[in-house]
Amino acid sequence: MLEPSVDDLQTKISSKYTLATIAAKRAREIQETDRVLVDHPKSNKYVGQALEEVMAEKVFVKEDSK
């Protein structure tokens, strides 16, 4: 997968571990529902589509308020 690049994705979510976890969870949701939050995704694969959603800021990490 070339797009979006990991460097670009880390501007949205700084932790690679968190990014991988969110992408995997969202990819399962896309597979089950067939609903993608971005218009005309470039990727045909669920993980790629999930990462495109992260890049488009449709999927993000909710920070804990302490």
TrEMBL record:
Q: Which family does it belong to?
A: Belongs to the RNA polymerase subunit omega family.
Quote the subunit structure annotation: The RNAP catalytic core consists of 2 alpha, 1 beta, 1 beta' and 1 omega subunit. When a sigma factor is associated with the core the holoenzyme is formed, which can initiate transcription.
Q: Name one Pfam family in it.
A: RNA_pol_Rpb6
Source organism, top-level taxon: Bacteria
Its job: Promotes RNA polymerase assembly. Latches the N- and C-terminal regions of the beta' subunit thereby facilitating its interaction with the beta and alpha subunits.
Q: Look up and give the organism this protein is from.
A: Lentibacillus kimchii
Q: What is its EC number?
A: 2.7.7.6
| Name of the protein described by the UniProt record | DNA-directed RNA polymerase subunit omega
GO CC terms, sorted: DNA-directed RNA polymerase complex
Catalysed reaction(s) here are: RNA(n) + a ribonucleoside 5'-triphosphate = RNA(n+1) + diphosphate
Enzyme kind, highest EC tier: transferase
Instruction: Indicate yes or no for the key word Transcription.
Output: yes
Q: Which UniProt keywords apply?
A: DNA-directed RNA polymerase, Nucleotidyltransferase, Transcription, Transferase
Which InterPro entries does the annotation name? DNA-dir_RNA_pol_omega, Pol_omega/Rpo6/RPB6, RPB6/omega-like_sf
Which one of the record's GO molecular function terms can you name? Answer: DNA-directed RNA polymerase activity
